[in-house]
Amino acid sequence: MQNRAEAVDQAFLRRVADGDFPSSTTGLTRADSDLTDAALVEIFDSQILSRQLDLTSRRMQAKGQSFYTIGSSGHEGNAAISAVFRHTDMAFLHYRDAPFLIQRSRQLPGQTPAWDLLLSFAASEEDPISGGRHKVLGSKALFIPPQTSTIASHLPKALGAAYSLGLSRRTAHKGAMPDDSVVLCSFGDASFNHSTAQGAINAAAWTAYQNIPLPLVWVCEDNGIGISTNTPKNWISANAKNKPATHYVYGDGLDLIDTLRAAKQAETYARAYRQPVFLHIRTVRMMGHAGSDAQTTYMSINRIEETEAQDPLLHTARILVESGILTQDEVLARYIETGQRLERIAVNAATRPKLSSAQAVMASIIPPTKAVNTISAPTADERSVAFGRELKQQDTPQHCARLLNWALTDLMLQYREIVMAGEDIGTKGGVYNVTQQLSNRFGQHRVINTLLDEQSILGLAMGLAHNNFLPMPEIQFLAYVHNAEDQIRGEAATLSFFSNGQYTNPMVIRIAGLGYQKGFGGHFHNDNSIAVFRDIPGIIVVCPSNGHDGVLLLREAVRLAREEQRVVVFLEPIALYMTRDLHAEGDGLWTHQYPGIEAKATQGRVSAYGDGTDLTIVSYGNGYYLSRQAAALLAEQGIHIRVVDLQWLCPLPEVSLIATVKDSHRILIVDECRKSGSISEALMSLFHETLPQVQVARIAAEDSFIPLGISATATMPSRDSIVAAALALYQQGAH
Question: Which residues contact 340 (CB under 8 A, 6 or more apart)?
Answer without folding.
Answer: none
